[in-house]
Amino acid sequence: MLREKEITLLERIRAKEARVGVVGLGYVGLPLAMAFAEAGFPVTGLDIDERKIDLLTRGKSYFRHIPEGPIAQAVLDGRLHPTRDYSRVEELDAVLVCVPTPLTAAREPDMSYIISTAEALVEHVRPEQIYVLESTTWPGTTEEVFRPILERSGLKAGEDFYLAFSPEREDPGSEHTARNTPKVVGGYSPRCLEVAVALYRAAVPKVVQVSSTRAAEMTKLLENTFRSVNIAMVNEMKMLCDRMGLDVWEIIEAASSKGFGFMPFYPGPGLGGHCIPIDPFYLTWKAREFEFSTRFIELAGEINTNMPRYVVERTIEALEKNQKSLNGARLLVLGVAYKKDIDDLRESPALRVMDLLTERGAHVAYHDPYIPSLPKMRHHDLRLVSQPLTADLLGAADAVLILTDHSEVDYERVVRQARLVVDTRNATKGIPGAAEKVTKA
Q1: Most exposed residue of 150, 307, 315, 343, measured as fewest CB within 10 angstroms of its CB?
Q2: What is the pLDDT of residues 202-216, one digit of tens each?
Q3: Is 98 annotated as catalytic?
């Protein structure tokens, strides 16, 4: 009976008749839904956020880096159906779950979104479906957390329905998209893997198979821990270079000329985005279960977490050279998104820097062409509005802090009109007059 079910689902996938559902239409889920819609599948997008569903239904995008044209066309053609109605899950053949996996206040994994989503899905699980978790998480989550909840339906993974894990690899604002980035896939069983591979192979250029869901989960953690550790190393190198009177950016550029055995990573005010600041802590938390201390990874996390404080210290030093105190200083922050040219605030180090500056008595304003306002957030309550980047605004600031180097900002003008610039992104490289006004941080 199982083999007959599998062939039926595989045939629907190969004919692009399988109905694909994506749960969670955020930075990961929306591009994934569009990838399957553009590959020719009928896609149902599920999200509890009424605003997102309303915008998508009208063919609108709520992310600057995701154009509206393809969304509007997919909705018009009937290839994308946005909804808040979880009862639609029963109609679907494939359900891909892309929900957040943040950290608790104690920096431990927060499984609440995965658990609540699985509990919403369980009443609609039926035979001949495949469920794939894409949320970044610790090795074992798919089988130890996600699967038992789905099996409350009375159906068994690998027997009645299929189960897999495929880590998201979304990089907002870059040329790496859901359509052109290889997908790693691990199945709960060999047959689960076969179905999952067929599904993703129909929408992406390359699928990399691994031996289990745990291996796929660990792959994602390795990718992001690799980046975290290397960024921590170069952040530490930056602090050492500052102490030694050297320019770390010059040194990275020179080292990059080697052509082999070196990969450039760049320093900054801290880590941002949903992955790199969070994922290593998932790994260190899980490692404790095996009585294993991930000292190297934890040290990298400590260095990266402390970078906002380092930026504040460098700002204090720069102000003091101009006979100014941080307490009462008027500071202008340029860029609050976690990286350039996107409207993503998730875990942005700029928010932590602004909190620290405000706590020490500074008056902080900001300009970001992609972030019009800062509402109250889970860990931040700045409640500021982006200010127009005028000569008066620049001239009135005791210091201008470049925390995100958006391309559309004229940094030559910033250097010319500001009294003092604290540059965390090397945005002022080569600008006339920068040597006299700019402090690298």
Answers
A1: 343
A2: 999 999 999 999 999
A3: no
